[in-house]
Amino acid sequence: MSDSRSRRDFLQRTVGAATATGLFAHLPVDEVFADPRPLPNAVPRATLAQGEALRIGVIGTGGMGTGHVDAFLRLARDQGEPVRIEALADVCQPRLDAASKKVEDVQGAPPATYRRYLDLLARTDLHGVLIASPEHWHAKMAEDAVAAGKDVYVEKPMTLHLKDALRLWDVQRANPGTIINVGTQFVTIASYREAQRLIADGAIGKPVWSQTSYCRNSKDGEWLYYGIDPAWQPGVNLDWDAWCGPSGKAKWDPEVYARWRRYKRYSTGIIGDLLVHQITPLVMALNMGWPVRVIASGGHYVDKAMENHDQVNLTIEFEGEHTMIVAGSTANELGLQTVIRGHKGNLFVGGRNAVLRPERLYADELDEQTIVGEDHGDDQDELRRQWLRAIRTRTPTASTVELGTKVMVIVDLAARSMWEGGAFAYNPRTRKVKRL
After folding, report:
1. Which residues contact 270 (CB under 8 A, 6 or more apart)?
2. For residue range 81-99, what is the model confidence (pLDDT) as tens digits?
3. How far is CA 141 from the centre of its chain?
């Protein structure tokens, strides 16, 4: 098949799928999350010769996307990573131009730039695509990237809704040769990897409950540090309708565009943007199966102008008989120590080293010990390097779609509990969410 024909076929398929996506925007509670749309078949990947530089594209050049651009340029320039940024896409021309200039300054030539992400995906020379769009676009863009034969790094949270996470997991399993890496970099922290090994070896006995948090504070309100550029002109240099995309059309609002994490239509706020960082490595280390019951409480205690909550407290139960307690705040920065509590001992994790301390009743059987973990530098850079290695070796990273889907069960059910009250259950065999 010629490049032009494969590009045309890909665009036709993805445009059709985009029209259908809106039909599944709001599945009711107590309904099985089943999506009747056929799963895509990925077109062949771009060839990669031994030692050849990986060619990647970045979709979304806002704060996070541009941060990734800077990081990949730095990894190539300072650490010799064989990677080049060949293409950028964003609905906002000023952001696109600024990111393009950064690439040109380091690589010596400007990357190709696109206002439509599908045009970037239609290129046949890219090996991987990093998606740093707002949450409501993650699932659609990731699926389209898989269909286009690209390996994917999708920012956290993996999706906005659980139904989209289940769909993306199905897409990945239908295309097992595709690498999808979720941008939850705390899975690279050494203490969690050591905890995973120790728990599997039975070192602390049955893990009965755990605790973690992500708490921070501000005087004026969270996420207001994302500035509003007066140069943004919808219909001139910014495609607002394209930005709204799967969430449906809305009136132009620069506050929403710049600070969408504050609004429940586009984000779950603390739960999806912050807590997934801490929850994901704990779920990985514990290996307690699927979350099956979640209840959340909290409210708008200080930042009453923000639509999403500024305080959340989660209780999560797993099918492997384990309870996780999670606190999140954007109104107080004193959080909980991250601890995994077992019947025989306790694991203190979250940094480079893991500390195992026996329960008093088992002090004669277990020795307190500190397990010194590998120092790999910046955790996010390590996850980026893992993704680049995965593209070359076809070996999944630690932050997989299956792990991301388990975390999205927590995010989705916790958000429902915050807004609707009550506890929510998930059945991993029927894919059914039920209010209890």
Report:
1. 214, 222, 308, 309, 310, 311, 312, 328, 329, 330
2. 999 999 999 999 999 999 9
3. 13
C-alpha distances (whole Å) from 366 to each of 195, 197, 208, 272, 345 are: 15, 16, 18, 37, 8
Residue (of 153, 139, 97) closest to 397 by Cα position: 153
User: How open is the CA angle 286-377-340, to the nearest 5 degrees?
Assistant: 20
List the structure tokens of 366: 């277990």
Query: Token match 């955790």: residue?
Result: 379
Cβ count near 273 (within 10 Å): 24
Closest CA to 133 of 162, 153, 163, 151: 153
Q: How remote is the C-alpha of 237 from its chain's centroid?
A: 28
Q: Which tokens is 184 given?
A: 């939850």
Kindly report, residue by residue over 325-382, the tens digit of the pLDDT. 999 999 999 999 999 999 999 999 999 999 999 999 999 999 999 999 989 999 999 9
CA distances from 213 to 24, 210, 385 (A): 32, 11, 26
Question: Which amino acid does the sequence have at 275?
Answer: L
Go through the chain and tell me how many residues it has: 436
Amino acid sitting at position 206: K
pLDDT digits (tens, 9 = 90+) for 140-196: 999 999 999 999 999 999 999 999 999 999 999 999 999 999 999 999 999 999 999
CA pseudo-torsion sign 7, 12, 16, 18: positive
**CA 200, CA 349: separation in Å to the nearest integer?**
16
Paired sense of beta strands 207-215 and 128-131, if any = unpaired
Give dist(CA 201, CA 312) in Å, integer.
33
The CA-to-CA distance between both ends of the chain, in Å, stands at 53
Structure-token pair, residue 29: 């509670």
Separation between Cα atoms, residue 256 and residue 251, nearest integer Å? 10
What pTM did the predictor assign? 0.92
* Ordered domains of the chain (ranges, CATH): 3-178 (3.40.50.720), 187-221+267-376+410-435 (3.30.360.10)
68: its two tokens: 């990734």
CB atoms closer than 10 angstroms to residue 118:
19
- Those residues whose C-beta lies under 8 Å from the C-beta of residue 304, and which sit 6 or more positions away, are none
Count the Cβ atoms, other than its own, within 10 Å of residue 132. 24
What pLDDT shows up at residue 328?
98
Give the residue among 329, 352, 391 at the shortest CA–CA distance from 84: 391
